[in-house]
Amino acid sequence: MAGVPDKAAGAFRTIGELSRDTGLPQHILRYWETRFPQLRPLQRAGNRRYYRPEDVALVERINRLLNHEGYTIRGVQKLLSDERKRPPASAPRAAAGPTDGVDLDTIRSVRDSLSDALADDSNPA
């Protein structure tokens, strides 16, 4: 469709638009929906698919992993599944305990060294 302006970044995309934008055939996009449970576009009357911006980003990521980085479908499934199970990096963590792999003696030693250095700086010679 020549002359049709691009949609806004947050607009939903049809499967045809997504296919055109990514260069992927529509049957591949439909196949990926069966293989990746994270990819769930909205479906309206007549099973017309509408891809949200996060769906578009996921399709682009799956495409990059499969077609450019050499992952298999099973490998991408595992990667996405593992990411889903892992807590987000911005989530607050519980207080660190002795089993978290933190060497408290090293931390205390560094703290004491810094404290001594600050005390030396504040006392003019």
Describe, in plain words, how this protein is organized in 3D:
- The chain is mostly helical.
- The chain has 5 helices and 3 strands, in the order βααββααα.
- It has helices at residues 15-22, 26-35, 53-67, 73-85, 104-122; strands spanning 13-14, 42-44, 48-51.
- A 3-stranded antiparallel β-sheet has the order 1-3-2.
- Strand 2 and strand 3 (48-51) form a beta hairpin.
- The longest helix has 19 residues, at 104-122.
* Sheet with most strands: strand arrangement: 1-3-2
Mean pLDDT comes to 83
Helix-and-strand structural type = mainly alpha
In DSSP terms, counting alpha (H) and pi (I) runs of 4 or more, how many helices?
Answer: 5
Q: How much of the polypeptide forms β-strand, as a percent range?
A: 5-15%
Write the layout of secondary structure elements.
Layout: E1 13-14, H1 15-22, H2 26-35, E2 42-44, E3 48-51, H3 53-67, H4 73-85, H5 104-122
Antiparallel strand pairs: 1-3, 2-3
Labels describing this entry:
single chain, 125 residues, mainly alpha
Summary?
Helix content is 52%, strand content 7%.
